[in-house]
Records
---
Amino acid sequence: MEFFTKFPVMDRTTLMEMRKGIDFAFRDFSRAYGDGIEAFFDPLLYFLVGLEKLLINSPWPIIIAIICGLAWLGSKNWKLVIGAAVAFFLIGYFGMWKDTMATVAIITVCVIICMSAGIPVGVMMSRSDRVERAILPILDMMQTIPSFVYLIPILMLLGIGKVPGLIAICIYAVPPIIRLTNLGIREVDKETLEASTAYGATTFQKLKTVQIPLALPTVFAGVNQTIMMALAMVVIASMIGVKGLGVPILRAVLNQYLALGLFNGLAIVALAIIFDRVAQEYGRRIQKHRGFKK
Amino acid sequence: MCICVSMIKLKINKGETMNKFKKIIVSSLVAFGFFAFNVNANAACGKLVIAEQNWASAELMANVDKIILEKGYGCEVELVPGATMPTFTSMNDKGSPDMNPEQWANAVYTPLKKAVSEKRLIIANKAPITGLGEGWWLTPGSIKKHPELKGMTALQILERPDLFPYKEDPSKGAFVGCPAGWGCQLANANLFKAFEMEKKGWVLVDPGSAAGLDGSIAKAADSGNTWFGYYWNPTSIVGKYNLQPVDFGVPFAGRDNWDNCITLPEQDCANPKPTAWTKSEVNSIVTANFAKTGGKEALSYVEKRVFPGEVMNGMLVYMADNQAKGSDAAIEFLKKHEDVWGKWVSGAAKKKIKAGL
């Protein structure tokens, strides 16, 4: 009877030994390779620090002008451009300029990394069902595992600062771009592909001139999602020493500063909306020739 | 963190309604004369809510209190998660939880004084742990790597930012301060200003969270790198990594400087003076309701409950090594250190607690 009422659980001390064993093994690993791994990420750190300094030290009208210019190039929509300008002006006016620039810097670098890592993986997945089957569960895990779980090993390996924060953000933000690249290429019209084969295109030529261009709108939706998810991770990343809008939010949560939390939260929302609308408009424009309507 | 805060709020409401509910039941039972014996047995102590703050020594104390009050004095104790500022704010404004076993008083000095004078809060124990303190520390690896650091005061260390290169800007020295939102963050930021550390080539690093702060120490200690920053004792981190306290090299510059400047937000502290860290005051504070619900006996237990520093550090290292929760550690403590807690309780209560383990 006891068998049915009591779950056959591992012996308490064995379980403890196992947990300790894993911890010690990881500690030895980080002692042995931590410095090397840290050095590997140094160029990334310098790039990130440089970008942040550039954004913070440049005169603010120039930054706003650049952002408006990018918004115009992306969307060709003057309402969006004015909206972006007003939002950034308000952010600066409420004293959140420096934090916002730090956040913009880390999000930018994160998106660059996610694109340069995610798109090739997505392409590989689209070319082989076996690779797809192997990678999908990994993506599921990356998206659902609570971020605090991987913050601990990242912390022990790389300490606190920008690079561990960046890695934590990327783990969470990279899956959509991989998924949607894969999906976009798989969805390319079979007949179009056949036609290019008939003209004697090599595999690489097909990929470069037919599949990727036709998949671009979907890929762009993935980039968009990645930006959103990266912004959502800003607060978590600030728990391991990443500067930016997350820090005042943490302070607000711990001290019940309602207004401080609200202002900084809204600044993240403003960033998200601007990025999202510009990317969406851009995606819509590159689909125009295919006759999609709004 | 946000989860903790909302949980506290949730539990407060639950606690209050439960209290009312219980009062109604108890009074109706008395009115009908049912279970008169039961009511009498529990009359001395009712339902109490104790804050279990999110660090090891506070977890241990909350759980020891829970077991002793429940087994020894027949209280019904509920633990709710907490942290220095949210728990104090909640006790001060809402009168719940009923007790914070380890309230670091420096962060809340002025409002606590006010609440005590208004008889809303009671400082039941002025020093529940001996030999504790906040301050600036070095990892032993720092001293091993640069022997000249041995015996240096903070003032002297501040002249050598080159020994503690900041990862993101190696021309500067890194001083690891307190996570955003902790009371000590303000104090460290103001001391950073008072000691003119920016001019001397230092950066105040915000580790972001408790995990970040501990992780930065563990990382530095494991890899033998230098580390200079804020921490406090008693903690398993201090015990485990053998952190070395740093003398500030200046005397304590007076309460006025500390209370009306150093502990305030930066914009309210225009001219901070360099000072040693204030002597840490840790209290067990209880609400007026605790004294009422818990009765004299429970209150006198809290008054007598003093953990010797070395016993506490030993327990903290035990917790860290075995990844033990506060509840496991409390049982370990009660089993191992009867000589310590035996003095806190009456003979009858001691017997009951031992039987209940």
Note: Residues 15-290 of chain A form a domain with the MetI-like fold fold (CATH 1.10.3720.10).
---
Amino acid sequence: MKNILTYAALLIFAAGMLLCMTGLEFGNPAYTDMDDYMVENGQVLTGGNNIVTDIVFDFRGFDTLGEATVLFTAVLGIGLIFRRLREDEEYGYE
Amino acid sequence: MDMSRIVRTTANVLLPFILIYGFYIVMHGHLTPGGGFQGGAVIATGIVLLFAAYSYTDLKEKVTLGALKNSETLGLLLFIFTALLALTAGFAFFGNWLVNGGAIFGDMVAFGPNPGDLNTGGVIPIMNLAVGIEVLGAMGVIILSMLSGIQEDA
């Protein structure tokens, strides 16, 4: 019974993947309005010649704020792992 | 326990150039490929070079964990503070309130290919600098934490 259920789930999964693979047309139609807007107006609106930096720090500033916060949190975790133990503190593992 | 004199001398000679190159990448982030993240990582490699050439015990008085932590926090605070300052100038959060204003980083930029002017970009160079300081501090804290765990050379 369990085997049959597993095979049925696998079959449904494979059918879904096949449907996605064959049923969708990628790049048609091409939605490039946002790209064109940034390439055409990026220099004038943000004043930077490097369009990538214009997007990262101006058009997508919130994204960069999240990125910086992720870095901060990663360093926080590393500091927690590698912190110096107090005098009376023991390692928790056996 | 230090590395040999050759390694230490090479590190001494190379360190200023690495720091200047990293600072160049940070400050030209809005003109050339690069930016705060990449430039901060380059500066952090200078710190790694120092710790590879000299021992951890020699340098732990000069390059302290507290200073790097402070630089990381300062970078993130400067980033958020620059974004918040846009509110006082009448823009939205993260608005570019310095661009084309004629003040600092406020020169007009031409559309199309041009040689580039460092004094453009509005808040983008300031944010690049903030992120550069933050990444430099973050990488340094990671390296120093791991080195202090083993208490040996890099």
Note: The two ends of chain B are 10 Å apart (CA to CA).
